[in-house]
Batch of 4 targets.
Target 1
Amino acid sequence: ETGVTQTPRHLVMGMTNKKSLKCEQHLGHNAMYWYKQSAKKPLELMFVYNFKEQTENNSVPSRFSPECPNSSHLFLHLHTLQPEDSALYLCASTSMSAAYEQYFGPGTRLTVT
Amino acid sequence: DQQVKQNSPSLSVQEGRISILNCDYTNSMFDYFLWYKKYPAEGPTFLISISSIKDKNEDGRFTVFLNKSAKHLSLHIVPSQPGDSAVYFCAAIYSGGSNYKLTFGKGTLLTVNP
């Protein structure tokens, strides 16, 4: 596997469920990001991890809980979500040598019922 | 308040013609700009970028122009090909900040007709 992978690609969950999104990057990057893309809105940055340390939480509700066990893996734990949380969740990574060029995964299409 | 604006949600051009996608920004601290392309069911992929010390950057069929005084940049695709049909996102960053935070526009859907 190369690049940035995300699983699952599609997820339907009820408001009382708990689920997790997974992101893995095979690029040797040291920074990883979670973005949310809702219909007709710009990509919204949610969290940033740099060398496994969370360095940014962009006022994200606590029902979203990120985890970065190492520089290659990033998780987004979801619990008691709302229907308005339905969106495409994108993971990205970047390296210090090309810090502005973020590499994105294919995203997880989340539907909250 | 949107700091990066792509005011055209969609653009349709004929194959072989020029496609011009526009982007405006409001934050004068931004000093590096990127364009991403996104196909359905895929994540955005980096296309081309430009630093604020330049006013033009070219890569094959893609050229980005930056007008700092107008806080405006544009992406030119010449000649346009059907495979260029995708959503194009403009993004901006302040290089002096931390975390390499990109601010994105809403995107413009480009359709290139054969």
Target 2
Amino acid sequence: GEEVAQTPKHLVRGEGQKAKLYCAPIKGHSYVFWYQQVLKNEFKFLISFQNENVFDETGMPKERFSAKCLPNSPCSLEIQATKLEDSAVYFCASRSSGNTIYFGEGSWLTVV
Amino acid sequence: AQKITQTQPGMFVQEKEAVTLDCTYDTSDPSYGLFWYKQPSSGEMIFLIYQGSYDQQNATEGRYSLNFQKARKSANLVISASQLGDSAMYFCAMREVGGGSTLGRLYFGRGTQLTVWP
């Protein structure tokens, strides 16, 4: 597709439940990134992929967060045992070999 | 240290006037890229403009231009002829390309909320 497609747009989970978010990068883009936006003005890098390979996962809280980009499937970001502080907008972004990085519309996670 | 600093939490501009949103950056990587994104209240992140560290000319895209001053490490966004629809949060971001990291995560500033009034 011509845009980064993220689903679901909104997700509500009780504390301790699992949350799974999906991202289909722009067709032909082999680089995928996940970011967390907290309080509307703070972006935190989580993880990046080149095709299905993890490139940089230094931003991931590994004890509860995991991500995959498998061939012929949307990329996913999964949070096990969600906490209140996980409430945020999760953005997926993709890039081809060029410079521009395009973002999806975000998935709004609310943990109650 | 902050990689990207946006010192203006909020800016106001009258319709049809020009406005400059400030951004300074910090990197020792000689190869990097600078980005501006617009985030309206609906939440999506819209790419506006890109400037590479080796680009000789300031980037322009329609009403957007990037005032790139490399020695001062600044990359200010200039919006000419502001429109009501320009009201949004604007984020400056940087990607470091060198140092073996060819993918390069984006480092974001904390944003500037622009309000355009009639």
Target 3
Amino acid sequence: DTAVSQTPKYLVTQMGNDKSIKCEQNLGHDTMYWYKQDSKKFLKIMFSYNNKELIINETVPNRFSPKSPDKAHLNLHINSLELGDSAVYFCASSPLSGRAAQYFGPGTRLLVL
Amino acid sequence: RKEVEQDPGPFNVPEGATVAFNCTYSNSASQSFFWYRQDCRKEPKLLMSVYSSGNEDGRFTAQLNRASQYISLLIRDSKLSDSATYLCVVNMNSGGYQKVTFGTGTKLQVIP
């Protein structure tokens, strides 16, 4: 199926741990994004990559490091997890940077204990 | 003023009713506009793009008012399955690149 996929779907971990979330899209899109949706349901952009290059970094702590090995993949690595990192993380992709609609992955529900 | 603002609701409407949501945006240079729908514990999904001349897709009508800087979504003949949170999305030029901003969403509950 053509889609945006994320793994894992659920992630429960202890404070201080390091974890990664993977994202892949097979839609042939050039641009990929990471969003964080907190308990208040506000969806906030974290990063945007266009053809493997970082184009948006929205005041995200440097504990968060995105990596794009190719334009179909955008992974998110988080160091030293904190309680406030608990949220749902969505990956998305679009054909053009910011000019076209985005297609979202199913989300990764991260709970930091 | 927030970049993109929506009334959080909830809007509780009976089946068959017509309901409208507005979304205001602050940057007059905004270029692209969309409505997304998000069901509980699911990802946002594109509902429709919003074009300058307004556009319709079945029971859904989207309008753009550039002068007053808002977009609207009208849902006619509401169905129970329309219950969801509706997010407006605005694309704007920010620091030389295109930035996508989501509103906080308007919750719709259609009741039998």
Target 4
Amino acid sequence: QQQVKQSPQSLIVQKGGISIINCAYENTAFDYFPWYQQFPGKGPALLIAIRPDVSEKKEGRFTISFNKSAKQFSLHIMDSQPGDSATYFCAASRTGNQFYFGTGTSLTVIP
Amino acid sequence: NAGVTQTPKFRVLKTGQSMTLLCAQDMNHEYMYWYRQDPGMGLRLIHYSVGEGTTAKGEVPDGYNVSRLKKQNFLLGLESAAPSQTSVYFCASSYLGYMNTEAFFGQGTRLTVV
């Protein structure tokens, strides 16, 4: 059973556009929701993370929106750039326990 | 500071052969994990460890064994490789703490079983 469901599987965005990736979870005990970015041939690396006590977190062009009641969270990439082309994974965990990852979204930003 | 280092980076095995993947971290993290990454499946947890001498099963543990004899090392073993184990394997480690929960990943091991 997939603990974290992610969509879309792939996304193509024009340079300067907004990329939006969505995730949903079931376990209300999760208290940490990170997004990881992975470039080809590399391991995933933490991009941005949020805890359920806030509804939004912004770091530069990257924003996480969190809806606790709907058990959903999303990543917004503003002013998308070709260098943002990568695979993005959402994840969830309960502090002190293992991470559960979504199935990934392959983002392509067209110049 | 090397972070998380995986050895080897590439390997081709014949069906039935055995091998061990080594993961080493120099961040003094308590938690270590082994994931496999397959197209359309994301990152699936194979086994993990919450400290030296402890291991636990993840989502897809069948066909794999692990050991954590030292805090900095986490070994993943395949006793009798099968083509279904062709995948990219990632090791990760994290600190046990509410304010610092980031998982650091290695570069991956691409394993092909023929």
